[in-house]
Amino acid sequence: MLWTIIVILLILWVLGLVTKVAVGALLHLLLVIAIILVIVQLVTGRRRV
Questions:
Q1: Are 16 and 23 in contact (CB under 8 A)?
Q2: CB 27 within 8 A of CB 45
Q3: How far is residue 22's CA from residue 19's CA, in Å, rounded to a whole number?
Q4: What percent of the chain lies above the pLDDT cut of 90?
Q5: Residues 10, 1: Cα–Cα separation, whole Å
Q6: Is pTM, for the whole model, over 0.85?
Q7: CA 29, CA 2: separation in Å to the nearest integer?
Q8: Which residue stretches of 1-49 are H helix?
């Protein structure tokens, strides 16, 4: 689920860069959030129940 959200955010960010119809700071903020989520997941690892 988390990886799906990250991929969607990255695709939207790239589309915003390519089409120049970006909302500006909002898309970059979403990219930063996606990167932080990836780092947190890599550091904490997957915890099995």
A1: yes
A2: no
A3: 7
A4: 0
A5: 14
A6: no
A7: 17
A8: 2-19, 25-44
